[in-house]
Write a structure and sequence with these properties.
Structural class: mainly alpha
Shape: elongated
Helix content: 40-55%
Order of helices and strands: HHHEHHHE
Strand order of the largest sheet: 1-2
Strand content: 5-15%
Radius of gyration: 23 Å
Number of strands: 2
Number of helices: 6
Length: about 170
């Protein structure tokens, strides 16, 4: 038998990922935003009621009587809320309810600087932030300020701590 020179086919080696990160759906992100929006507006209405005798702030849904100062105050409050909550634990109340979390692109915890940069677009430019993200980066599930702040929104994974097994009784 003649000896044939058979060269092995090149093998493409794919790196095995260390961990899998599941990006959050736009619909889940919307519901988390809506929960936050309703809670913050309710809180601001309580504050509005307290300051009513001193400062007449229009209601947010009364768009015919919007005041630039009041709208700016509300936007700044939203910015502070999201920066503090997401900088502290990566989740606002809406994200906690929807089981979502803001993290760095490698899945690590974000700091307050990243949270504040990510919150800028959400607080002041949300329609534009989302629209540019959808059109310029289709399929990436990123808003522009997610890209700028190097953050992503993921499904939070509540696992049992290492070495502990929870046993649940059947009901």
């Amino acid at each position: 038998m003649p000896e044939e020179n058979i060269e092995p086919e090149p093998v493409s080696i794919r790196p095995v990922p260390e961990k899998t990160i599941y990006l959050a759906r736009w619909s889940s992100r919307f519901w988390a935003w809506l929960i936050d929006f309703i809670l913050v507006i309710l809180f601001l209405n309580i504050v509005r009621g307290i300051f009513e005798p001193f400062w007449n702030l229009p209601l947010l849904w009364d768009y015919m009587h919007w005041d630039a100062v009041a709208l700016g105050f509300e936007s700044i409050f939203f910015f502070a809320y999201w920066t503090v909550m997401e900088g502290f634990r990566g989740q606002s109340i809406g994200k906690m309810v929807m089981n979502l979390k803001v993290v760095n692109r490698d899945g690590t915890r974000i700091d307050y600087a990243a949270a504040s940069l990510e919150s800028l677009g959400k607080s002041f430019l949300l329609p534009l932030d989302c629209l540019i993200g959808w059109l310029a980066m289709p399929g990436s599930k990123l808003r522009v300020f997610n890209r700028i702040s190097n953050t992503i929104v993921i499904k939070a994974d509540y696992k049992e701590p290492h070495g502990i097994l929870y046993v649940r009784d059947k009901e």
